[in-house]
């Protein structure tokens, strides 16, 4: 005898929770960081719209805003003690879109379309490098490492890669030159270089712990400096972004040298450390 297409539901077992898990309310401290991540995603996706409309200044601003929100959401989650596995996965997906898909499409809309298939291949290389970079970052989160290595990333992080990838667009806005086929190939090669830096194992300095605690006498000067930097970024966005990006790229070799020096010192200290004495109860 054939079974019915829509079998009867055992309401008693449903109410008792044997068939369906009971929905639970989520605390606000868990929802707030995810809302910040979704706002960052909306900002990044809005950058595509601005690029399609030819408003590249606003498109760059949307990506910078997404990067700032990305730097905030994790800190908000830790401050509110609202970290969750769902939030971590959502953050990774938002980062892939904001710092992988959006910058690649924006550069293609702006100039790489003149390079035809070569320009599109550069975009694909960059987007694939971004997703591989984020996947490697998630895998390495649980890997134990010395405390000093927390000041370094393995390869160029995705937000920095997105800001660096748009350097040709900053320079075009500063020097007021139109995108054309002559520079499309150069931009494509540069984009592939940024993609390589993202998936490479070259250590890049992050400085996450250098300002973990600010001395009391430096709070006011630091606050004034941050306000002036934000004001300069709003008033002269493209020169500030271009200078910051070039300085970041130039510092990579020095950060690599610093990492190797600290690594040698750490290995030497480990080798010089006395061996752990054997257990006295061991036979």
What are the salient characteristics of this protein?
Four Helix Bundle (Hemerythrin (Met), subunit A), mainly alpha
Overview of this structure, please?
By secondary structure, this protein is an all-alpha fold. It is 69% helix and 2% strand. Strands 1-2 form a two-stranded antiparallel sheet. Helix 9 packs across helix 10. The protein is globular, with a radius of gyration of 24 Å.
Short summary of the structure?
The protein is an all-alpha fold and 283 residues long.
CATH architecture title: Up-down Bundle
- Largest sheet: number of strands, sense, barrel closure: 2 strands, antiparallel
Distance between the termini: 70 Å
User: What count of domains describes the coordinates?
Assistant: 1
Which secondary structure elements does this structure contain, and how are they paired or packed?
Layout: H1 11-16, H2 28-52, H3 56-80, H4 85-110, H5 116-140, E1 152-154, H6 158-165, H7 167-175, H8 181-199, E2 203-205, H9 219-235, H10 237-272
Antiparallel strand pairs: 1-2
Helix pairs in contact: 2-3, 2-4, 3-4, 3-6, 4-5, 4-6, 5-8, 6-8, 7-10, 9-10
